[in-house]
Amino acid sequence: MKRINYTLFVLLVVSAVFSCTRTNLSIDENGNWASRTTFGGGNGIGVGYAASFVIGNNAFVGTGVNPSFPSQKVQAMWMYTPGAIPKGSGGVDSPAAQGTWTAIANFPGNPRSNAVGFSAGGLGYIGTGLANDGVTIYSDFWSYNPGSGVWTQVNSIADGAGSYPRYDAASFSFDTVGYVMTGTDGFNFFGDVWRFSPATGQWVKQNNFPGNQRSGASTFIYQGQGYIVAGHTPNTKWASANLAYDFWRFNPNSVNSDITWIRLRDIFNTNPATYDDGYSNIVRTNAPAFIILGTIGGDKGYLTCGANSASDINFTWEYDFSSDTWTEKAPFKGTDRTGAVGFTVANRGFVTGGLNAGAQQAYTDCYEFFPNMVYNPYD
């Protein structure tokens, strides 16, 4: 009979119940979340499981689901432009720093949630996802031109053998190409990887992702390489949790297929060394991620919110690219949530949207994270 490690399950439940309080942080749990203009500038509806991409100094967020409209997935799209932060005391909370949301042309494909987005060649792309009926899944893709404001349908994820629909996929975005990988159809979890070139308009299947097949993973892009972490998987030995703990780096320019993917240190306490002894609540699914360069101690990636096996969470963790280690930071200031969107614009990290436990409410709040500031619970 397969042995189940119940230690992880107990730790996850304990972490969910005894969430670190916002007024009793350890010395390592620093950083501050500043409130920004609400999603849609007060005119948008809250959405969970939206898709996003970044072009230049603007982030584009849209599609998703709002439970106020039962079974209704949305097509609305919005562009966020960060505001300037004045120097001096209170600058991060000034009106000028709030930024603006601008409505753009609706996504023209069928309404959906749990789609994936990326940018390449100066265009943004959104595709795949889950339909209104909660059963139909998509493989189609659409590109957005920020200059003309026009959406254009491009090729679906497909080859001569057929199409490959999915939702809760992950993506990497590089200068001239994009990659879509993993995801689920509701029954199966995928490990295939597809490369899209705007120059040819074609999807080309790559070598499979070597880690655990998964859905709801999070990604970073750093120095021309992609990082994929967390997510839901049936293939972990900790079957009671079904949360992926393996962490991988992808090199799109590797000429050696054996080193295209490099496994990094796990995000759970699986090593006899002491560096990961506190890694009890990094594992999660459907979590927003972003990077900020030039922080104290170097360039860092951030993972926050999402869901573990017990509930939505607010734990925020900082990844050090140079040491391959994680440090817990100040928890997300908004309500615990899953299916939020994270993005980096102008080297600044933001989180918006998401759903609460049970998908009964979608959020419109938007926050920016300042990793080197002292936490202020009264903002």
Task: Provide an overview of this structure.
- Helices cover about 5% and strands about 35% of the residues.
- The model is unreliable at about 1-25 (pLDDT under 50).
- It is globular.
- The protein has one domain (about 5-370): Kelch-type beta propeller (Neuraminidase).
- The protein is mainly β and about 375 residues long.
- It has one helix spanning about 5-15; strands spanning about 30-35, 50-55, 60, 75-80, 100-105, 115-120, 125-130, 135-145, 150-155, 160, 160-165, 170-175, 180, 195, 200-205, 220, 225-230, 250, 260-265, 290-295, 300-305, 315-320, 325-330, 340-345, 350, 365-370.
Sequence-ordered SSE layout with sheet pairings:
Blueprint: H1 6-17, E1 32-36, E2 51-55, E3 58-62, E4 77-81, E5 100-104, E6 116-120, E7 123-130, E8 137-145, E9 150-154, E10 158-159, E11 162-163, E12 170-173, E13 178-181, E14 193-197, E15 202-205, E16 218-222, E17 225-229, E18 248-250, E19 261-263, E20 289-295, E21 298-304, E22 316-320, E23 325-329, E24 341-345, E25 348-352, E26 366-370
Antiparallel strand pairs: 1-26, 2-3, 3-4, 4-5, 6-7, 7-8, 8-9, 10-11, 12-13, 13-14, 14-15, 16-17, 17-18, 18-19, 20-21, 21-22, 22-23, 24-25, 25-26
